[in-house]
């Protein structure tokens, strides 16, 4: 095999790995985003949350996601997307674990903030 053909094969493999990993991270962010909406009736019943409190939980995730865009952009410029997206996904995992063990509306709100922080890098960090 010639050197250009090997280089193309290597570049194609890296591109596939990059798109697959970013696709998986994006899918996780969408699951976090819509997961609370799907289980909202059960959460409201189990944790005795009012519709206003439940809306506060959901909006805290979106507000954190929006507020983190500029800091995440600065971090991506300084450290690179691989480090930033990988590091922020730890916040998403912590938020998901906290949702699973939350026993109050405040814990659920904190979990939503963590998930908003973690998924904020998906938008900014995946730019070319």
Keywords for this entry:
single chain; 128 residues; mainly alpha; elongated
Account of the protein in words:
This protein is mainly α. The protein has one domain (3-125). Helix content is 89%, strand content 0%. It is built from six helices and no strands. It is elongated, with a radius of gyration of 18 Å. The mean pLDDT is 83.
What's the layout of helices and strands?
Layout lengths: L2 H36 L1 H8 L3 H17 L1 H11 L1 H21 L3 H21 L3
Helix pairs in contact: 1-6, 3-6, 4-5, 4-6, 5-6
Oligomer: single chain
Gross morphology is elongated
Give start-end ranges of low-pLDDT stretches.
Answer: none
How would you characterize the largest beta sheet?
none
Run of helices and strands: HHHHHH
Short description:
The protein is an all-alpha fold. The chain has six helices and no strands.
């Amino acid at each position: 095999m010639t050197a250009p053909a090997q280089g193309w094969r290597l570049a194609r493999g890296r591109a596939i790995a990059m798109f697959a990993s970013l696709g998986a991270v994006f899918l996780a962010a969408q699951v976090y985003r819509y997961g609370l909406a799907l289980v909202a009736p059960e959460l409201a019943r189990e944790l005795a949350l009012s519709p206003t409190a439940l809306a506060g939980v959901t909006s805290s995730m979106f507000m954190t996601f929006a507020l983190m865009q500029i800091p995440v952009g600065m971090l991506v410029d300084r450290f690179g997307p691989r480090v930033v997206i990988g590091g922020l996904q730890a916040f998403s995992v912590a938020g998901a674990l906290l949702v699973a063990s939350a026993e109050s509306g405040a814990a659920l709100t904190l979990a939503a903030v963590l998930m908003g922080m973690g998924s904020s890098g998906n938008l900014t960090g995946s730019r070319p």
